[in-house]
Every structure is written in C-alpha cells, then in structure tokens.
Amino acid sequence: LQAKALEDLRNVADEVALQAWRVAYLGRNAPLMQIFSRLGQLPKDVRPQVGQRANQVKQALEAAFEERQAALRAEALRRALESERLDVTLPGRRPELGGLHPTTRTLRRIVHIFAEMGFQVYRSREVESDAYNFELLNMPAHHPARDLWDTFYTTTPGVLLRTHTSPGQIHVMRERAPEPIRVILPGMCYRYEQISARSEIQFNQVEVLAVGHNITFSDLKGTLNTFARRLFGEQARTRLRPSYFPFTEPSAEMDVECFVCGGKGCTVCKGSGWLEILGCGMVHPTVLRNGGYDPEEFSGFAAGMGVERITMLLHRIEDIRYFWANDVRFLSQF
Ligand code: PHE
User: Fold this and answer.
1) d(CA 245, ligand 1 centre) in Å
2) Residue nearest to atom 10 of ligand 1 (CA)
3) pLDDT digit string (tens) for 82-92?
4) How many other C-beta atoms are found inside a 10 Å radius of the C-beta of residue 76?
5) d(CA 126, CA 154)
6) For a Cys-Cys bond, which of 207, 210, 251, 277 suits 185, CB 3.0-4.6 Å?
7) Which annotated residues bind Mg(2+) (predicted)?
C-alpha cells in the first residue's frame, strides 16, 4: 500500500491532483484509515503490531504529502516569477499631466500685468439685465448702437446674457462711489452669432476701468501702451484709431503692429500690418452719472479686450473654434 501510494504521489503534478491523492490515501474512507477503525475487531495479540505498522505508514504518507506539497508550491512560484517577470531596466511611462487652458494662461498674464499697475480684479455677473448691459451704458431701448451686439435674451423679459464686460463698470461704480476706482473685470461674454473661425458665441473679455480726479486720455494711452509692451514684448508698437462706443467719448481702438510680418502686411493681419486688440475710451459723462459720479468732478477711462483674440495673436492660432473643441492635440501644446 505504501509503495503504491508513494508512486502515485510522484505522478501528482498539481494542487488539485494532490488533494485528490490525500483523500484517496489519508481520507476517512481510505483503506489505511479503515484499518484504524477496524482495529477493535482484530484479535488482541496482533492489535498492537497492526496498529503500530499502520501508524508508521500513515506518518510516512503524511510526511511524503507535506514534502510533495512544498515542492509543488515552490515550482508554481518559480513558474509565476518566470512568466510574470518585470524588466526593471525598461524606461518608465511618463504620467500624463493636465495643463492650463491657453485662455486661462493669457487671462493670468493679463491679470498679473494690471495687478502690477495697481488694478484689482472685480467679479461681475454673466446673467445681466437689459439696464446694465445697455441702458445705463448710454443705450436706451431702440438705440441703433445696440445692433453692435447680437444678444442672447432669456425667456424672462429684461434678462439677458451679457454681450460684453462693460455692465460691470456700473456695478463697480455704484459700489465704490465716490471713491476712486482702478479695477479690471475678467469674465465670459455671450453673443448670438454665426460661429466661424473668427467668432464664437462664448468668449472671455477683460474690462479695464479707472475713475478718479484728473484722469485724462494720456493716462489711458500710457496704461494701455505699457500693458501691450508687457504682454507682447518691449519692441511691440501700438496705435490708437478713432472709433465709436456709446459709453465712451472719445472712443478708440488699439492695434499692435503685426509681429508676423513686422507691419509689412501678411495673411495674419490681412495685409494691413496691424492687429486690433481692444476697444477703449474716456468714460461717457452719462455713464459716470449712472454710476454715481459727478462728471464735473470725476473722469475716467475704460477698455475692453477679447482674451481668446489676444491668445490667437500670441500663439498664431488661426481658428477660434479650437478654444472650445477640447481637442487634446490642441490643448497639450500650451
Ligand atoms: N465693450 C466694448 C465691446 O465689447 C469694448 C469697450 C470696453 C469699449 C470699454 C470701450 C470701453 O466691444
């Protein structure tokens, strides 16, 4: 019996077969174990001898079992190590890090530059009233200048999505009057427009507003020129062109010399040599009054710039739709 059992054990190749072997030779119904339960039926004089011998066999089988089990486990471990081997000399995979959106990067630079000139950031709402977006900015109902902004209206009469950050001017003035003001107002604006390479229905602006005693057009020019040089580089050239906005008088637009062709004219500046970056002007007396400032005593300048627009110039991005497309091939370049 012992010889047969040990031979079987040698042919056991895995854990399952090993357990089957254990049941067959050491289990309750195994022939060897039957001997123990039937010891009592044997004649008294042979009992010790048979018992002793059966015990020896049992111990031998148990020892062999342990040994075989240990050997099988060692073999399984060795095979696992072999097949799941790691090559620790392979170069690691770099984890993908997220990054800031190009608009956010430009916004942060703009905020930083104006902060150095003493401007605070003022947050203003995106859902506005007709009064703040138009009327208080010197555009009564039916004023033709309202057509400059294609507007998203809500189903609530008089409530709309702001078309520019200028309504924030009134909010700051009404909160601060009669204290002097030096703030910028960054934020999202909305326009009901056909989406194209040059216009989106949603974009960021940064409004600039300074109100105080003796603020002149020279202050506007100096501040905006300084800003443009810090953003585009010391060599950047700028110019102001007369323009029209109902809430500023006089009004102007600022261009920077095209840095692609150096002012000679190319596809980026459409042959003009200049790129428009913002609208600006001296705050209209009516707007000052609506904000709670006496135009006899106070004056101010304001400007509004498109952040995506400026980002496009800085990075030569040719289509504004990339900003909302969420294409990682675009986003990961910044
Ligand atoms: N709000 C104007 C626009 O959206 C820009 C602007 C702001 C012009 C402040 C003058 C003064 O086009």
Assistant:
1) 7
2) 280
3) 888 888 888 88
4) 12
5) 12
6) 207
7) 249
